[in-house]
Design goal:
216 residues; mainly beta; Glucose Permease (Domain IIA); 8-stranded antiparallel β-sheet; two-stranded antiparallel sheet; 2 helices; globular
Length: 216
């Protein structure tokens, strides 16, 4: 298993807006009490094994950059806690599963060279899903442009297939970082429906015929 590190969160105020800047870290802690989560009967939150893909059309994807890995023994040669999809500019990013938008976190990663707009959607008391809009820019205005392209706000309930936002593709390496957390990041394979897993592996093998989705 990979070594987990704690996140450092710094709150700053810019033009009256509080931004949560998170550096490091690899976890989103579950609710302390399962009874705290109540979806009002919107969907069955007892188990997640029907997750879909996060794109409407396969043609929306420019490339698949890498999957989940707990060691460097993988084709991309690094520990990685999610799946990376390079979306075309202005393509819809859709919800793989239902849930409530618990947070939208703004941060800079990779020594400040990459911005991240992380939309965190809670499925139940244990499972959190991250849609990380990552762009290779240090410009807060570019990041703000991506934020403006989101279709959800904190507190919104989303259904599977709902649009989370449109992707701002500034270069071919900009991507969505998709992650599943049960406290810590985990391989997403058990959560996909059979059809979704087949679709995503066909996508992966379009670009990398021998790659797997997860590497322990």
């Amino acid at each position: 298993m990979q070594k987990r590190t704690s996140a450092i969160v710094i709150l700053v105020i810019v033009a009256g807006v509080v931004l949560s800047l998170q550096f490091g870290g690899n976890s989103h802690e579950p609710e302390d009490n399962e009874d705290l989560f109540d979806n009002g009967g919107r969907y069955d939150s007892s188990d997640l094994d029907y997750m879909g893909v996060i794109y409407s059309n396969r043609s929306d994807i420019l490339n698949w950059n890498g999957g989940y890995s707990e060691s460097t023994d993988c084709p991309w040669g690094r520990i990685h806690n999610g799946l990376d999809f390079a979306f075309r500019n202005d393509s819809d990013v859709i919800a793989a599963a239902p849930g409530i938008v618990e947070a939208i976190e703004l941060s800079f990663i990779a020594n400040g060279t990459v911005y991240k707009v992380a939309v965190l959607i809670r499925f139940n008391s244990s499972v959190m899903i991250e849609y990380g809009f990552e762009g290779f820019s240090e410009d807060v205005e570019v990041r703000a442009q991506q934020v403006a392209m989101l279709d959800v706000e904190v507190g919104d309930w989303v259904a599977k297939g709902d649009i989370i936002g449109q992707f701002l593709q500034g270069g071919g390496v900009d991507h969505i970082h998709f992650g599943i957390y049960i406290g810590e990041a985990t391989c997403p394979i058990p959560f996909f429906s059979d059809d979704a897993y087949t679709e995503i592996m066909e996508l992966v093998h379009t670009y990398h015929p021998t790659w797997e989705l997860c590497y322990p």
